[in-house]
């Protein structure tokens, strides 16, 4: 009876924390829409959102045409990177695993740079080439890591991480090559994309990224108990009849699709997939039923917070959000190392 009571208390605390976090999310979401060169109060912002899009109204056009797509992009991308990060850390049993550290983001960056220089994959309209190319190369990098892992004895997770690091350096070198052979305007566009920016956020990107996230999230639900068992230990998972090698490949592919959809529209945004799972794990433990959605939730809050900071650090200038997330991520990594958490 005591253990049942303790479990009920844990569930109740988790629900209370989730409720508080939901309130924090709503407040930060509205603040992100509110903050900008055109000053708006929170009441005005909420009113315009509920009024819906209207023509020939300046503030309505600013919110519905620019700020709301940017904020919703933060939600979709943050959730995707947070979920992908916790899945990678679980299947690789390593707190440093993330889309950024495994080279998938670098591959997307090369894909974007390659498209900017050569126009690949030559689609019409031309603006769609960059996100499609970024998605193609991020999936290619993920496939290479997955295929390499199948050739490794017992799907050695350390070897997978090492191969991911190799991929990171490889595609980073190719990014540099694209910058070297590009002209001045192309170099500027490449750098702007690699910084990770929300400036080109649009409703189509929100639709695609949110659809991919919802589909992958629903598919991932069936693997939650297996991932929870795997987090306890490989032997324990195998004793429950879980095919751990197959599980790693499936979840890695799902994570790759999430990452590809997320970074293809906003560029390389680092450390969200690394930091969000650590925060979620602190409050939710290793139970994937709660850890996975909470990691996605923290990813959203972190990216929205970074978006707000990018607008207010230098008045009148919007700093690329990827710079903010990198600075925060580096500080968090240093903190973990000093506390000997990794």
TrEMBL record:
**CDD domains, alphabetically?**
TM_ABC_iron-siderophores_like
Return one GO MF term: transmembrane transporter activity
- Membrane-spanning regions, if any? 17-41, 61-84, 96-120, 126-148, 160-181, 201-221, 249-275, 290-310, 317-338
Descriptive protein name:
Iron complex transport system permease protein
Keywords of this entry: Cell membrane, Membrane, Transmembrane, Transmembrane helix, Transport
UniProt xrefs under InterPro entries = ABC_BtuC-like, ABC_transptr_permease_BtuC
Q: Is this entry keyworded Cell membrane?
A: yes
Highest taxon in the source lineage: Bacteria
From which organism does this entry originate? Gracilibacillus kekensis
Q: Which family does it belong to?
A: Belongs to the binding-protein-dependent transport system permease family. FecCD subfamily.
């Amino acid at each position: 009876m005591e253990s049942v009571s303790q479990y009920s208390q844990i569930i109740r605390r988790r629900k209370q924390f989730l409720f508080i976090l939901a309130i924090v999310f709503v407040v930060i979401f509205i603040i992100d829409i509110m903050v900008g060169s055109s000053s708006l109060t929170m009441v005005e912002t909420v009113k315009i959102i509920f009024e819906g899009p209207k023509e020939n109204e300046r503030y309505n056009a600013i919110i519905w045409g620019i700020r709301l797509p940017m904020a919703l992009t933060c939600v979709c991308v943050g959730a995707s990177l947070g979920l992908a990060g916790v899945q990678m850390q679980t299947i690789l049993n390593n707190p440093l695993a993330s889309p950024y550290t495994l080279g998938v983001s670098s591959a997307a960056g090369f894909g974007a740079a390659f498209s900017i220089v050569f126009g690949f994959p030559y689609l019409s309209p031309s603006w769609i080439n960059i996100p499609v190319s970024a998605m193609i190369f991020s999936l290619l990098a993920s496939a290479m890591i997955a295929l390499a892992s199948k050739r490794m004895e017992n799907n050695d997770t350390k070897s997978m991480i090492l191969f991911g690091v190799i991929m990171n350096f490889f595609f980073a070198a190719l990014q540099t090559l694209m910058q070297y052979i590009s002209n001045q305007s192309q170099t500027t566009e490449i750098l702007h994309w690699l910084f990770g920016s929300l400036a080109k956020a649009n409703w189509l990107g929100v639709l695609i990224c949110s659809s991919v996230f919802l589909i992958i999230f629903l598919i991932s639900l069936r693997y939650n108990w297996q991932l929870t068992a795997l987090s306890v230990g490989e032997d324990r998972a195998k004793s429950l009849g879980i095919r751990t090698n197959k599980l790693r490949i499936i979840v890695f592919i799902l994570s790759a699709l999430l990452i590809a959809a997320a970074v293809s529209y906003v560029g390389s945004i680092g450390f969200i997939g690394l930091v969000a799972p650590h925060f979620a794990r602190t409050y939710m433990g290793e139970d994937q039923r709660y850890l996975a959605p909470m990691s996605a939730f923290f990813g959203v809050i972190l990216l929205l917070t970074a978006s707000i900071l990018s607008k207010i650090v230098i008045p009148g200038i919007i700093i690329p959000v990827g710079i903010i997330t990198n600075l925060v991520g580096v500080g968090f990594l240093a903190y973990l190392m000093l506390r000997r958490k990794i």
